[in-house]
Write a structure and sequence with these properties.
This protein has helices at about 5-15, 45-50, 60-70, 85-95, 105-125, 140-145, 170-180, 200-215, 285-300, 305-325, 345-355, 380-390, and strands at about 25-30, 35, 40-45, 100-105, 130-135, 165, 185-190, 190, 200, 220, 245-250, 260-265, 330-335, 335-340, 360, 360-365, 365-370. The protein is α/β, with parallel strands linked by helices. It has two domains: about 5-55 and about 300-390, Aspartate Aminotransferase, domain 1 (Alpha-Beta Complex); about 60-300, Type I PLP-dependent aspartate aminotransferase-like (Major domain) (Aspartate Aminotransferase, domain 2, 3-Layer(aba) Sandwich), CATH 3.40.640. The strands form four sheets. It has a seven-stranded mixed β-sheet with strand order 4-12-11-10-7-5-6, sandwiched between helices. A four-stranded mixed β-sheet has the order 1-2-3-15. A four-stranded antiparallel β-sheet has the order 13-14-17-16, covered by helices on one side. β5, α6 (about 140-145) and β6 form a beta-alpha-beta unit. The relative contact order is 0.16. The mean pLDDT is about 95. Bound molecules: pyridoxal-5'-phosphate (PLP).
Length: about 400
């Protein structure tokens, strides 16, 4: 370890709260690669947990950020800025034509969905409860923790915020059994991300839509991880032909600049009125300029076609690996959101990849999660698969 790294790690240890497990100190990124302080290169199949979907430091996004940084960074929402309406229109045009509130993180966008559901539900006769899913993940604020089905994240932070109940993912009967006179909404990830890369079945999402229509509930999609092309469409729900009443997005919306949003169907656009919801930083000109560049790149550079083609290539290669290793029990994929079940070998494989210069994520207790850049090339897929094969052997 060089002395500069030692000095920085000591400083980190002294001054940064120790809430993460982490090691390598990254200093530079370009496309699908990251470099650490000591000059070592890594092929990145994590992309900041599906944030830098266009690759690190995408030239078009970097140019948009630099240009906007020299013009106007922040005004607060006491004033209009010229980037928010443009980005809101891009979001609406690429989804269900709704109206948008801008925030800064996935948890914050989901908080907005929860507030929308409560305010709407309360106006319908005291309905404020939300059904979410076991094994879901919706964020680390108190409300989104209460909505999160993975109970380990709530440990030590009780009392849980009331008003949430958990059903079983992909089990419509279990959702039906949870509906009460107080239910206002159902909140669901179209693909369980942190919970193990588990896509919803078409019957499940269609059934949720039907249940919501029957019982006058809001159907809320958390597209924080699945949005912005990760699954091969702009939003994962578009694979299913089932529209939500509102949805959240974050992560890749700014390709690394903190930027999030929730979008509501036009008929719900008046639920949140002036003064009922706000954010100092939400939708700064800087963040929105990045978001606009992200949409323009997705539209103009054939990125989704590449993501789908590379996703198929991954699946082919991973299926060959599965045939070699009996401990690989399942491969699940939607676009470039990929889960490989490897049982109790998950940590060893992740560490083996890291040692060999490949960054992969895990999900749930037994899944290697791959979320490479949507711009990845076939050569880079092969490079990563070769490393993965070594680590798995
Ligand atoms: C589906 C989902 N929702 C919400 C969040 C929380 O997002 P953030 O960490 O930006 O608050 C995440 C983060 O991983 C997520 O995957």
């Amino acid at each position: 370890m060089n002395s500069e790294l030692q000095r920085l790690l000591a400083m980190q240890n002294d001054h940064v709260l120790n809430t993460y497990t982490r090691d390598t100190m990254m200093v530079r990124g370009q496309g699908s690669y990251l470099w650490d302080l000591e000059g070592r290169r890594y092929l990145d199949f994590a992309m900041g947990i599906s944030v830098c979907n266009l690759g690190h430091c995408h030239p078009r996004v970097t140019a948009a950020i630099c240009e906007q940084a020299g013009k106007l960074v922040h005004t607060s929402n006491l004033f209009y800025n010229d980037k928010q309406p443009r980005l809101a229109k891009l979001i609406a045009d690429h989804s269900f034509g709704g109206k948008v509130f801008f925030a800064n993180s996935g948890a914050e966008a989901n908080e907005g969905l929860i507030k929308l559901a409560r305010r709407w539900g309360n106006s319908q006769g005291g309905r404020s409860d939300i059904i979410t899913m076991e094994n879901s993940f919706h964020g680390r604020t108190l409300a989104t923790l209460a909505a999160t089905g993975r109970g380990k994240y709530r440990a030590g932070f009780q009392p849980d915020m009331p008003g949430f109940d958990f059903a079983t993912y992909n089990d419509l009967d279990s959702v039906k059994a949870k509906i009460t006179a107080r239910t206002a909404a159902i909140l669901v990830e179209p693909v369980l991300g942190e919970g193990g890369v588990i896509p919803a079945t078409p019957q499940f999402l269609a059934g949720l839509r039907q249940l919501c229509d029957q019982h006058n509930l809001l159907l809320l999609f958390d597209e924080v991880q699945t949005g912005m092309g990760r699954t091969g469409k702009f939003f994962a729900y578009q694979h299913y032909g089932v529209a939500p009443d509102a949805m959240s997005m974050a992560k890749a919306l700014g390709n690394g600049i903190p930027l999030a949003a929730f979008e509501v169907q036009p008929r719900l656009a008046d639920v949140l009125t002036p003064g009922t919801h706000a954010s100092t930083f939400g939708g700064t000109p800087l963040a929105c300029a990045a978001g606009i560049a992200v949409f323009e790149t997705l539209d103009q550079d054939n990125v989704l076609a590449n993501a789908n083609a590379m996703g198929e290539w991954f699946e082919r290669e991973l299926t060959a690996l599965k045939a070699k290793h009996g401990y690989v029990t399942d491969i699940r994929r939607l676009g470039l959101m990929i889960g490989v079940d490897v049982g109790d070998k998950v940590k060893a494989i992740q560490a083996g990849c890291r040692e060999r210069g490949l960054l992969v994520l895990t999900a749930g207790e037994q899944t290697i999660r791959l979320m490479p850049a949507l711009t990845i090339t076939r050569e880079q897929v092969q490079e990563g698969i070769a490393i993965l094969a070594e680590a798995m052997a």
